[in-house]
Amino acid sequence: MIAIYARQSVDRADSISIEQQIELCKFETRGECFRTYIDRGYSGKNTNRPQFTEMMKDIREGYINTVIVYKLDRISRSILDFSNMIEIFGKRRVQFISATEKFDTSSPMGNAMLNICIVFAQLERETIQKRVADAYFSRSQKSFYMGGAIPYGFRKIPTVINGIHTSMYEPIPDEEKVVRMIFEVYSQPNVSYGDIIDRMNELGIKKRGKDWVRQRIREILCNPVYVKADLDVYDFFREHGAELVNPPSDYIGENGCYCYKSRDDKKKNISRIEGNQIVIAPHNGIVDSGLWIKCREKCMGRKQVIPFQKAKNSWLCGKAKCGECGYALTAKEFDRGRRRYLRCSNRIASGICKGAGTLYTDEVEQVVYDEIRGKLAMFGKLSNSEQAVPDAEQARLKNELAETEREISGLLERVSESDNVLFHYINERVTALDLRKKEITEKIKELGRRKDINAYETDAHLTLWEELSFDDKRRVADVLIRVIYVTSEKITIQWRI
After folding, report:
1. Domain match, 45 and 95 both
2. How far apart (Å, rounded) are the C-alpha atoms in residues 357 and 319?
3. Same domain? 462 vs 314
């Protein structure tokens, strides 16, 4: 069967539509049956596209013998992805046809031309990315609205800057009062984010229908969009290493500021000042400069509370929930681990939950372990009924390892006859495969260790708890327990067995 693949990242008047691509590809089918695979709104920079993945699956299963595209860059703009795809086509004896470029993949010259064209396709993609980035920074430095979530306290309205239509913020009177109150309360000594949340809850104030959490409070206090920027604000940012786009004369104590990440940063970090670009915005600020600076300096000395993190302080993490609200209990350590507590993450983040009481991690772990012993004692000596799962997984991984080693060997055999482009691809591909080989090998070893541990535990499952590693304790809890609801008065365990 023939496959017609069509892709369009953005539907624009000057780009060829999906329907037009398919019509042009139909001519190459010569009246034979075909199936269309369409990815709308997906970029060609990688192969993470649902219909492309479906097509490759059908190719591997032998349903497709020919792939037709309107143009080469519709299927890929990456040298590595394209070379990998063509290699699979060769193994499955799948012919590749570009309706407009007329490639013949059966000849060496045709394959060479394909590789040359995909180099230019990738160059075009990278050039587009560079132009977009340059345009973004150019527009941001001219105070144009650059999108993103609208900060609390403002609404977006249309405006014109230097003859160009854009948008700007306008304060919302009711929310503006709340923002000022947040800054005024936080500026007082010994006031924390949690104290502000408690105040909001007492007054019944929501953040656009949602409960307040510490992260949102911190974002407001750190965001220069609220400040009435004057020379004090200019000096504050300059002293802390920010890139100031506007001259001091623009800081007249009326306008807020936009904060943009530097060109080298991949992600914006509102909590950091150094390196960020500060631009005078067209909207009026809400908070006086002195109050804003005082709060911003206080934020700089306060670490953000992160309630959700990878389990490391208790093997109960992920299973233990607050018995009052059902949110996860977070394990916290104090005095370098000498004191350990379980705290409600909802209480930490928003203050809505009254909390599950004082929960000592060691005591809760001991109670749960005693219950596990009681549950397992019902079974006496356990037989490992789930041993087939690791065995099946080991077999799958060993097959994948063998396939990876075969592919590496095949690629190395082609090095001597490769040109520069192919050699570059082979080098990258072999490096990636070697990393994957190491990962598979480690997984096989880990399954082997788990198999040995499981076989031993079946004879002494009630006495080896303290000898188990942290991760093994978590695995045991995951196998036996669905969820644990905890308060200072009661512990309820929902079992899987």
Report:
1. yes
2. 18
3. yes
| pLDDT given for residue 248 in this prediction | 92
Residues of the chain where predicted confidence (pLDDT) is lower than 50: 303-310, 382-389, 453, 455-461
Contact call for residues 32 and 2 (beta carbons, < 8 A):
yes
Active-site residue, 9 included: yes
Q: What pLDDT score was predicted for residue 120?
A: 65
Residues 195 and 266 both lie in one domain:
yes
Residue 402 belongs to what domain range? 391-442
Beta strands 154-161 and 243-244 are unpaired
Strand 66-69 and strand 2-8: the pairing is: parallel
Max Cα–Cα distance, the chain, nearest Å:
82
Are 322 and 348 contacting, i.e. CB atoms less than 8 angstroms apart?
no
pLDDT on residue 305: 43
| Whole-number Å distance between alpha carbons of 144 and 162 | 10
Q: First and final CA of the chain: distance in angstroms?
A: 49
pLDDT in tens, 120-170: 666 666 776 677 667 766 777 788 887 788 999 999 999 988 888 889 999
pTM score, whole prediction: 0.47
Listed as own residue / partner, the contacts of 443-452 with beta carbons closer than 8 Å and 24 or more positions apart are 443/397, 444/394, 444/397, 444/398, 444/401, 447/390, 447/393, 447/394, 447/397, 448/394, 450/390, 450/475, 451/387, 451/390, 451/391, 451/394
What DSSP designation does 178 have?
H
Which one from 9, 140, 271, 418 is the annotated catalytic residue? 9
Joined tokens for residue 399: 């097959």
State the Cα–Cα distance between residues 324 and 346, nearest whole angstrom.
10
The answer to whether the CB of 329 falls within 8 A of the CB of 344 is yes
